[in-house]
Specification:
The chain folds into two domains: 113 residues, no CATH class; 88 residues. Helix content is 51%, strand content 13%. It contains eight helices and six strands, in the order βαβαβααβββαααα. The strands form three sheets. A two-stranded antiparallel sheet has the order 1-3. A hairpin with a 2-residue loop joins strand 4 and strand 5. The N and C termini lie far apart (58 Å). The C terminus is likely disordered.
Amino acid sequence: MSGGYDAGFTNIDYYFHTHNYGENELRDLWEYELSLSPQDSQFIVAHAWEVLGNKYTYYFLRQNCAYRMAELLEIVGDIDIKPTNPVYVIPQSLIQKLSRTQYQSKQLVKKVKLHPSRQSRFYTRYQNLSSIERDVVASLIDSNLDIIQSGYREINILSKKKSCRRFIRLLPIHSKKRTKMETKKVKRNTTKLSICDFCYLSVTIS
């Protein structure tokens, strides 16, 4: 539970990690743009290449990924962002101190950008549905996408299109265990929903 794993820096492409965290592990990502001078930025990048391939022992409560990132940034003399708590360093406490840190008489954090996970994007779209449309989506889940049982046919065309799209986006997230027969039914009904979505979109545009 305490850690003790091998860890280190990597030069794997950024999009690989964003896809892995956001699409596979369903974790939101926050990107912090720092107001570093070009010289300090180059200095940090150069040091990152120096430590590339080095192995560290990873501990959850202190010497974790946030701690190592703080070490990397603190090679710039004006930056001090590691929390002073001698027992633990959690990412949240480090980010809080990072947000309060001054660099050359200005805020170190210049801009924060959220990269929502696939799950968060779905929840946002789901919250934008009406209560009736949410009920239909829930019924589609419970009925293994049975269009007749779910009440899907009773709602208007625009609601059909919205509910259909939201549910199709939910499918990779919804990990309910099914029998082989249920899986075949879901695949068959997913195709029907996809066709319906296309038809309703065409009707709406025309």
